[in-house]
Amino acid sequence: MTTAIIIVDHGSRRMESNKMLEEVAKLFGGRFGGEFSIVEPAHMELCEPSIATAYANAVKRGATRIVVVPFFLSFGKHWTHDIPSLLNQAAEEFPDTEYQLVEPLGIDDLMLDLLHKRAVNTQEPVYKYGDVDPRIEGTEPTQRREQCTSCPFKVLADGTILDTRKSA
Predict the structure, then answer these.
(1) What CATH number corresponds to the domain at position 65?
(2) Predicted TM-score of the model (pTM)
(3) Which of these is catalytic: 10, 43, 78, 81?
């Protein structure tokens, strides 16, 4: 049985973000190629390669077992519903294969080490009140954002989640 690894992220409208996952998959394949000769990147949505495309590519390369590793931090809706649904649809095209969705990155000593590394080794500039961060050019620093502008959900103080796409 030949096992393939599919590393899946959300997918982005920003090509730099999507290219980063491709680089992660390439580096993973380089480091662990002796154990996993087939490594494919996949994006859950917004761009290619999709989960279905990555699954098909892995099978074309000889995989009969697919291990899907989410490039996500937590057990959110994408892990509990979206990715399993997309995997099930992809596997339908290849009935002689099997797949496994493993846990997201989560809490791990390696993540703590990485957070520490980022905190002490950054070259990013320091800002103070009134400075303009070029990443938000055109937005005044005093304009408060309570959530991502592309997220259709709003979390209330009591933890209730509202889907703003649904009419009241």
Answers:
(1) 3.40.50.1400
(2) 0.79
(3) 10
